[in-house]
Amino acid sequence: MSRNHSPVLAMCAFVGLTLAMTAPAAAQSRLIIGGTAYSESGELTGEQQISVQENDESFSYENADFLSTRILYLRPFKESFRIGGGIDFIGNYRASVLDDEGQPQDPIEVYEFGPLLEVLAHAEWGINITEKIGVGLGAQLGLSGLFPRGDLREEILELQDQDVSTFMLPRLGWSVAPQVSARYQIDDRLALRADAGVQWQTIWIFNTEQTVNDVAFRKDWTASTVRTRVGLALEIQL
């Protein structure tokens, strides 16, 4: 389990407070359902130590897939401002491993982490340019949950076979993402919405130090990702 509990607890509190504020409200609340295409680059910083022997397990990666699904609920907060929350689901998160020169491995090596789900707190400011066209600036703060599958699951099972105390639980992290948006009003209740932004994400995968069969053992893995996203969604006024 991670020793960095404070950031996670703070994230949980912030997201919970924001979602609590999005209880059913007056008219003009908005439900946004859509998808995003993304491109990313990242670095898994990893080290394993057994007794006095240290092994660097770090690698760089880029996205192996490019689509995710997003649902948001926003309500009026103040004039031109909206707040809310939602979820973003990448699905089975996989990464294409890069070589020392920053190019995909030959043959291509894909590391499967598992399903990646984010609970989001969202705030935005918007203004209408014309009767049908509006633009906005926003920001998202997310609590990330990575559910081990594939290669990551195999890594955990291998550690368990070596009597290392680690569990098949979601790996937690956080993200922040500024974004810009544009919307086109189709009718009184429906609008087409486009978003673009950059997301910074950190997930703590392993952070354990223990004694295994009288031998000192330590393993630290942290995945840090920069993700560029472009989304298209249908916006429904409730």
Q: Determine the strand fraction and express it as a percent band.
A: over 45%
Measured on Cα atoms, how large is the radius of gyration? 20 Å
Fraction of residues in helices? 10-25%
Q: What is the distance, rounded to the nearest whole angstrom, between the alpha carbons of the first and last residues? A: 41 Å
* Beta-strand segment tally: 10
Low-confidence stretches: 1-13, 15-27
CATH architecture assignment: Beta Barrel
Structural class: mainly beta
Could you say how many structural domains there are in total? 1
Which labels suit this protein?
single chain, 238 residues, mainly beta, Porin, ten-stranded antiparallel β-sheet, 2 helices, disordered N terminus, signal, Outer membrane protein beta-barrel domain-containing protein
Task: Provide a descriptive summary of the structure in words.
This is Outer membrane protein beta-barrel domain-containing protein. Residues 1-27 form the signal peptide. Keywords: Signal. With 238 residues, this protein is mainly β. The chain has a single domain (5-237), classed as Porin. The chain is 12% helix and 64% strand. Strands 1, 2, 3, 4, 5, 6, 7, 8, 9 and 10 form a 10-stranded antiparallel beta sheet that branches. The N and C termini lie far apart (41 Å). Mean pLDDT is 90; it is low at 1-13 and 15-27.
